[in-house]
TrEMBL record:
UniProt name for this protein: Alpha/beta fold hydrolase
Domain Lipoyl-binding: residue ranges: 1-76
Subunit and interaction comment: Forms a 24-polypeptide structural core with octahedral symmetry.
GO CC annotation, single: cytoplasm
UniProt keyword terms in alphabetical order: Acyltransferase, Hydrolase, Lipoyl, Transferase
Cofactor(s) in the UniProt record: (R)-lipoate
Pfam families: Abhydrolase_6 (PF12697), Biotin_lipoyl (PF00364), E3_binding (PF02817)
MF terms in GO: acetyltransferase activity; hydrolase activity; lipoic acid binding
Length: 422
């Protein structure tokens, strides 16, 4: 076992930002395989392995700024010659010329895809080109709210510009329900419904991606949440006003509904009312008894900003990317106590009180129904999806938590962009 240190990628480089690990722990590689992407002040470079080995542990994460020579990973060389530098003199590595790099199959720059190339990507850690990072900073755009359309999901300038355009829709209200719409009015209609203690901002990246894919996207704040003035004292109240929103936004068209967590309850009710073309549920509530009661009660009656910060970490298998100011804002909203009654009725002595299993069985005979579930979900148990009808398509994300659309945004976008086409 040996330590891989941060390489020096140029004479003036003193440190760099880790953009992405291109090999995952436990994965073997050979000489020339790209291991890590590092962003310097001048460019983003994929650093190749200088010999074979197996990555056993990463010591830094995407977004970390690391000084040249500091440890970044543990490598198992399995008896091969030590090429990492280990604890000895640090080896300076200069990136190969573009021609040599391309010949070895390791690209350092991505040509723009064709204008009509489908949105896709490999998900994983955030990868951002320097020009996109600067543009986002100047525009005040949170990079975690974007989905990259570059190679392996890299965020590029066009993604920042497209997000700014997609966010141009103004907030509106119908029957007390706050909502915003984006994308072409003639596009395939899609309604996004958030989960417990969330609001429509949790869909920012996915809504932007779907709008850029040509869909007409509406995102709502459910009763008791966000800027909606209606309250929700019970799970059934979460569907109040949704029918009016659908009727107004989509002018009689049946939307494809995508709902997360507890949002599955009002979304399923809307589908049962015959007002939905298809139903996609991400980490849905209502499939079994298990639920993180501490999270539910903690978000309903938050003890402090710090407590909210800890609870939010349970949502994702990766860093949430929320700034301290954003968490403080969330705490301020939760302090209003709008979720207390809802939390009391959502939790019973044995766990969840909501059950949508039989409803999904019925709906799967009438329309496409799909479920996306993360195996590292800490709020609900992904194994509850095993009770679903074989007619329900279930997409598994072994390395995702309760928010697969945060942990693997490109894959989720691809599933929806391909499936919501009629």
């Amino acid at each position: 076992m040996t330590i891989l240190t941060m390489p020096r990628l140029g004479e003036t480089m003193e440190d760099g930002v880790v953009s992405a690990w291109l090999v995952q722990p436990g994965q073997s590689f050979k000489r020339g395989d790209p291991l890590i992407e590092i962003e310097t002040d001048k460019t983003a470079v994929e650093f190749p392995a200088l010999g074979p080995g197996t990555l056993t542990e990463t010591l830094v994460s995407p977004g970390d700024r690391v000084t040249v020579g500091d440890p970044i990973a543990r490598i198992d060389l399995s008896g091969a010659e030590d090429w990492t530098g280990g604890d000895s003199d640090k080896e300076e590595v200069t990136p190969a010329s573009p021609v040599a790099v391309e010949a070895s199959g390791i690209a350092t720059a991505d040509p723009p895809p064709p204008a009509k190339e489908p949105l896709s990507g490999g998900g994983g850690p955030m990868r951002v080109t320097p020009v996109a990072r600067r543009a986002a900073r100047l525009a005040g755009i949170d990079l975690s709210a974007l989905i990259g359309t570059g190679r392996r999901g890299r965020i590029e300038l066009r993604d920042v510009q497209g997000h700014a355009s997609a966010d141009a829709g103004d907030e509106m209200r119908i029957d007390g329900i706050a909502y915003a719409a984006s994308g072409p009015e003639t596009g395939v209609p899609v309604l996004l419904v958030h989960g417990y203690a969330g609001d429509r901002s949790t869909w920012a990246a996915l809504a932007s991606g779907l709008a850029r894919a040509g869909m007409r996207v509406a995102v709502v704040d459910l009763p008791g949440h966000g800027q909606t003035t209606r309250e929700a004292e019970s799970p059934d109240d979460l569907g109040l006003g949704l029918s009016a929103v659908v009727r107004e936004i989509f002018a009689g068209q049946l939307p494809h509904v995508v709902a997360h967590s507890l949002g599955a309850v009002p979304a399923t009710a809307l589908a049962l009312a015959g007002k939905v073309a298809s139903l996609t549920l991400i980490a849905p509530a209502g499939l079994g008894l298990h639920i993180d009661a501490e999270f539910i009660r903690g978000m309903a009656e938050p003890a402090s900003v710090g407590a909210v910060s800890h609870l939010l970490r349970r949502l994702s298998d990766r860093p949430t990317g929320l700034s301290p100011d954003a968490i403080t804002t969330i705490y301020g909203q939760l302090q209003k106590g709008r979720l207390i009654g809802l939390a009391d009725l959502l939790l019973g002595r044995g766990g969840q009180t909501v059950d949508i299993v039989s409803d999904l069985e019925s709906l799967s005979r009438r329309m496409p129904v799909r479920v996306l579930t993360g195996h590292r979900d800490r709020i609900l148990d992904w194994r509850d999806t095993l009770v679903l009808s074989p007619r329900v398509a279930v997409h598994h994300f072994p390395s995702a938590g309760h928010m697969p659309h945060w942990d693997h945004p490109a894959e989720v976008l691809d599933i929806l962009a391909r499936g919501l086409t009629t």
